[in-house]
Structure prediction request, 555 residues.
Amino acid sequence: MAGIPGTAHEDIASRPGGDTIFSHVIRWLFISASLLFLAALLFAPLATVFVMAFEKGFRAYIASFTDPDTAAAIRLTLTVALIVVPLNTVFGLAASWACAKFEFRGKSFLITLIDLPLAISPVISGMVYVLLFGLHGWFGAWLQDHDISIIFALPGIMLATMFVTFPYVARELIPLMQQLGNDEEEAAMTLGAGGWITFFRVTLPKVRWGLVYGVILCNARAMGESVRCQLSPVISEDSRTPCHCISRFSITSTTSSAHLLWRHCLPCLQ
Amino acid sequence: MATLKQPTALKQPSVLPGFGLTFGFTTFFLCAVVLIPLAALVLMTASMTWHDFVKVVFSARALGSYRLSFGASFLAATINLVFGFIIAWTLVRYEFPGRKAIDALIDMPFALPTAVSGIALTTVFAENGWIGQYLVVWGIKVAYTWIGVTVALTLIGLPFAVRSVQPALLEVQRDLEDAAETLGAGRFYIFRRIILPTVLPALLTGFTLAFARAVGEYGSVIFIAGNLPLKTEITPLLIVIRLEEFDYKGAAALGFVMLVISFAFLLMINLLQAWGRKRLTSRVR
Prediction:
């Protein structure tokens, strides 16, 4: 799902013929239909977010960050992302190596299982952890005896976030590695490089932009998902994430603009 | 697949090392994070009697929520199929000011927290909102009706639809189009016989992804839906309501139904992709 750098545009100017009134009309229709659709569905809501964030002026926007609740929420979100994103990145690299470099039976099935969290409602991913670790869940009594809290605390949020963001890196890398093929790795192996050296010196540089994009998507989802914490009717002071400060649009607009910035910088780096 | 030499072996021989390590780690992590929790859901459902299960899953309220969830998701995915293609076509084939910025903005529904997109959409489409005030004149109410649900689900699925079709459109060989044109084919004929066959698997993938994502969506819909039982209540919300009533079994049963449907859809996507790849490679050869 990587952003597509413009490659098909160079040959438009050089195409012979084609410039009839009919093609102009179609072109105009397509562009205006796209823009109208996006304006109503995407730009208007986005603009609302920013208008709301800066409604009370820039100073109020900055001040909302110093509010202890908001600060705690941001800290929690960042902690969760810091733990979850590296874990899922390592998983994504391992899974893509296994799936892209080898042919084995049941590969389609394995890939479907990896994709599964993508299609599962975040509500269900939150619920399964309540079923496992909740007060009436399987391990609930045992956990309470040993005074360990998972649901409505950091580990629970972490687990649910991990579940939701599980496929992003792998999904980005598997098709990319399949497309790039094994030739260079095999050449490296015949030249006497070990497995790790081949991975770090040949494969990783080849797929790095796909990896970066997958990590960004994973991170965006880790920070943006709100359901898992709405599942917790009892919220302790330290288990808030920004979704509990939904009225504070400032935080979200900041994180999303950071992501936008990333998306813009990425093609330039390439 | 045609060169499968040892049908009895788990994997084909390869020069590259690391299969055991990566495959083992993948399956271990998959089990720990995804499969064991899901097994809990399935087992919780299995502990119900058949009678109870049917009562929960086919209750009038549950049926109403399926109708809305699947109906609105299907409609949203169809809208995304059409406009996803139009937007992808515009971004790939035409040059106009702001094209790069729009290309980057397509991903916004990914990055935006779902709750925020829900609130923002509600603000825009409410009766006094930027767009809602004009629609009300025509007697169309968007916020707090099924139309609002569809709008939210369309926004959520949009990046999936566009990003699936975009690479496929880039792959369409312009030479073939030019050749067809010189041979006297009309525009519509070229579209139907050259462009559509190439992008069809991608279109279907985009549709299915958008649909699967829409069925499970919760965060953005609850703000714009109004959440009236039987009318504007989606299935995920019903699960949350059951959970809040500590009716874990009822919630698990509804979750199980959604899980089965999601899995079926994903399997379909992956089979479609395999089909598309096979068709493409056989054509190259």
